[in-house]
Amino acid sequence: MGKVVVIAALAILVGSSVAPGVASAEEIAWSRGAPLNLRRGAGTEFKIVGSVKPGDRIEIKTRGNGWTEVLTGNGRRGWIAAGYLDPVAPPTTRLAQLETETERLKQDLDLATREVDRLESSYEEVSGRDGQQRSELDRLTQDNAKLRAGSAWADRIAGALVLCTGMVLGAIWHRMATRSRGTRLRL
User: Fold this and answer.
1) Rounded CA separation 105/35 (Å)
2) What residue ranges do the domains of the chain occupy?
3) Could you give the CA distance from residue 186 to residue 108 in angstroms, rounded to a whole number?
4) Where on the phi/psi map is residue 56: left (φ > 0), alpha (ψ -120 to 50), or beta?
5) According to the 3-state scheme, what is the secondary structure of 83-146?
6) Which of 23, 25, 34, 85 is buried most, with the most CB atoms less than 10 Å from its CB?
7) For the residues of 34-49, what is the DSSP string, one character each?
8) Integer angstrom CA distances of residue 171 from 8, 89, 161, 166
9) Other C-beta atoms within 10 Å of 38: how many?
10) Phi-psi category of residue 66: left, alpha or beta, with phi > 0 → left and psi -120 to 50 → alpha
11) What pLDDT is attached to residue 145?
12) How many other CB atoms are found less than 10 A from the CB of residue 49?
């Protein structure tokens, strides 16, 4: 029984030590309705330190007892009644956000269109060079095929004739050079 009491006491202690009204990392809300008073504390008895116009973007710091501690866009910190905050941006703010996003997307589209035009002209240039290279390759392939197919037979025959003529002339010259000029005895 003593262990159960200790565990229950620890659970109560841990549960009460956690701040129940702390907002998440960066929670954003917008004021709605009429201009709101920004107060020094959570209640109407606290002094007004400023005001928030409808549609202003507000960062939520802490929540508690129907009041929310906020940080305004101009850096003022204070408390506002929680019922006047909306987690959804008002239509005018959302419209402005969408117009900004539309403008950014138009700029991205213009960049992409220019890049497409540049790539198309580059493609046409490369295609033209590719056609020239293909025709040169075809011509070289045909020349190679002619050489391999024996279309050089005329060159080979001419070479063989020059070789044979040289051999005959060499043999005649050799015979004439080795013939003795003296008289021969014939038997």
Assistant:
1) 34
2) 2-85, 90-170
3) 112
4) beta
5) HHEECCCCHHHHHHHHHHHHHHHHHHHHHHHHHHHHHHHHHHHHHHHHHHHHHHHHHHHHHHHH
6) 85
7) S-EEEESSSSTTSPEE
8) 128, 112, 15, 9
9) 20
10) left
11) 81
12) 14
pLDDT at 23 over 80: no
Q: What tokens does 90 get?
A: 């008002």
- Model pLDDT for residues 81-139, shown as the tens digit of each residue: 888 888 888 787 788 889 999 999 999 999 999 999 999 999 888 888 888 888 899 99
Mean confidence (pLDDT) of the chain: 80
Q: Which residues pair with 111 in a beta bridge?
A: none
CA–CA distance, 102 with 177 (Å, rounded to integer): 104
For 2-85, which CATH class?
mainly beta
| Element holding 82 (H helix, E strand) | none
Which pLDDT score, from 0 to 100, does residue 4 have? 41
Question: What pTM, to 2 d.p., does this model score?
Answer: 0.42
